[in-house]
Amino acid sequence: MGYGMLGWLPDNKTIFFQSEESGYSHLYMLDVTTGQKRALTSGKFEIYSPTLSYDKKTWYFLANETDAGIRELYKMPVQGGPMTKLTSMGGGIEY
Q: Are 17 and 6 in contact (CB under 8 A)?
């Protein structure tokens, strides 16, 4: 999943997508029954390659939260919430 990614959450009424609406690339969800859109990530950084875990409970993604040139691996609950930094390598991370 790269830029322009789009998919359904397990409830079959919510889509997730990546957008630069705020000026930074972030992850959003949209309830198609109510039209309510919500940002799952926000801030003056970007996320890359968001991926849902096999059990559909956790997001994994790269983010340049600490420095524009440094991407680290993070995880976050599927409905949003605190981002947990999983790596601190100070460089380009791939997963």
A: yes
Write b or e for each residue in 30-57: b if 16 or more Cβ atoms lie within 10 A of its Cβ, otherwise e.
beeeeeeeeebbeeebbbbbbebeeeee
* Chain segment 8-37, per-residue pLDDT in tens: 998 999 999 999 999 999 999 999 999 999
Supply the pTM of this predicted model.
Answer: 0.85
Q: Mind listing the pLDDT tens digit for each residue in 37-49?
A: 999 999 999 999 9
Give long-range contacts, CB 8 A cutoff, 24+ apart: 8-15: 9/56, 9/78, 10/56
